[in-house]
Amino acid sequence: xxxxxxxxxxxxxxxxxxxxxxxxxxxxxxxxxxxxxxxxxxxxxxxxxxxxxxxxxxxxxxxxxxxxxxxxxxxxxxxxxxxxxxxxxxxxxxxxxxxxxxxxxxxxxxxxxxxxxxxxxxxxxxxxxxxxxxxxxxxxxxxxxxxxxxxxxxxxxxxxxxxxxxxx
Length: 168
Known about the structure:
By secondary structure, the protein is α+β, with helices and mostly antiparallel strands.
């Protein structure tokens, strides 16, 4: 079942990436690990102020890295602050730690999914501000934010998973 979902997801992402021939902007980020292209078609609003791109892809051979949802837990004890911004900062830091295990950074992420407990506009503002601090170049991954009533562990306020890419 996972294989079917993965293949369908990959196929859909491919169709989306290749069907967009007019771009609001299209940037190419090249570093020593991957080549990620961020695409925002002219027919869609500019998502940059909201810290995401409509689509991302890569042009090189390699493999995907799937990062499980990272909470805002601090340290090996996984201490969860009651402050939403603190948890956002640590969820992004934990995401960077998981990426570093593959010698990757945030610019190697193609897609993120964010789960926020009791989402509201203030939490969206905080998330966006922290994203801009981490992605200083404003070349954001494709992104989906999902409001949820709760997460796996009591007092968890945010969870962020990612799909990154390693160049062969």
